[in-house]
Amino acid sequence: MSANTKRKANPQEERKVSNNGALYRFSSLNPQTTRFEFGGPWGASALLLVMPLLTLHFAYECDGIHSCTFFPELGQMHWTFENLIDYQAILAYLAWVAYLIALFHLLPGKSVEGTTLRTGKRLRYKLNGLKTFYTTLGLCAGVVITFGHSPFLFIPRHFLGIVFASILFSFVVGFLLYAKSFGSQALLALPGNSGNMVYDYFIGRELNPRLGDLDLKCFSELRPGLIGWALINFSFACQQYEVMGRVTNSMILVNLFELWYVFDAIYNEPAILSTMDITSDGFGWMLVCADYSWVPLNYTLHTRYLAVYPNDLGAVAMAAILTLHLGSYYVFRAANSQKHQFRHNPESADVQGLKYLQTQSGSKLLISGYWGVARHINYLADWTMSFAWSLPCGFGGLCPYFYPIYFAFLLLHREGRDHEKCHAKYGKDWEKYCKIVKWRILPGIY
Ligand code: NDP
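Above: the input record for the complex with NDP. Below: its predicted structure, written as tokens.
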């Protein structure tokens, strides 16, 4: 779809900047976005409404204490605006973000170079996510040993307030980022410079906004959302313990599965520097909302459901779920690592003998191993793993299945975006590659 707005001249973009002795014009570095994604400004406007409303809907209807229903009967809905503004929740939420920022600065971390930008420059990133994760785990263990499980009940008891705080936070930070992107010498994301305010605010305008050495996008991708997700899951296990005096095996399983997923992502923190989110997308409302609200609050539907409807799994169900999870995780990790090794350590024995297509751009595309089976076999394994997180909740309700349903759409859409990106980057080589590896995600079917 073509942008329907004409670009206004931006004097800042015409300024010449020096980089390694070379002179660039910002207008040529920051071309106007001519293709819209997510349905353009109308799609962006819809998502700006729907994502917060859905998160609020789940906070009301699946609060992990009273109920957990996807479609409550009319007249039975719990929506009330009484407890929406909860100052304790707002303070706790801001304290959580401040704590993560403080750890970023206080804990040591390896300094790693990112991919090459359009300016020819490479940014350096301080990576200490794993230390932040361990510190938070250690603190949680300390709190449990000292005070028991009750401090964690704050989260279930103030859940609606936390959700609302996260939504406010996303809109405010999204606005600040949008305003910041008009600062001098901001390198803009190729998809985020359409000139349409709503669309650019939604998709993210500036590619790598930073405050000193704090890269806001890289920081946000793994910490508030992922560590927050694990923390909220644990608090609903505490809620179940509070009500039942014990924790069911299904609750333990879901907590461990999702904690492991979080650990895996943070353990592989350097790999994030080559993901689409970091290399191509701007940092705007969409990613802020995902990292600070959508992921930590909606991905916890499994444990919220189990806190209301406890489930004891038998040995056969447990073995089947474990097998599905471990098998999926194995393929997910092996496929992602194979590409990472191939690109960053091609001499490694693990990737020797793999076939590849040499492209005109200089990059090589794997055509054997996991990447010869389907172009995104990693997405398939990620999805089957997500399904294994829902199964411990049984089949009594739809809420625990929201994540795999939504995730299927996300991955299909993401695959389409990645396909377009690669087609634009590799041209005829990508078409050749698609003829060799013909399945997109699910071999034999799609
Ligand atoms: P990928 O890790 O699949 O990376 C895609 C990129 O890899 C392409 O743009 C291309 O980049 C390169 N590439 C593609 N094909 C090949 C090939 N055959 N050989 C070598 N390189 C190739 O995508 P994502 O970054 O989207 O996902 C990373 C992981 O994160 C996935 O496992 C995904 O499931 C997961 N994820 C999870 C989410 C969640 O909410 N739980 C959300 C999003 C992702 P280049 O330009 O370098 O060639």
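Notes for the reader.
Residues 30-312 form one domain.
Residues 275-276, 332, 336, 339, 363, 365-366, 371, 375-376, 378-379, 382, 414, 418, 421-422, 425 surround NDP (CB under 6 Å).
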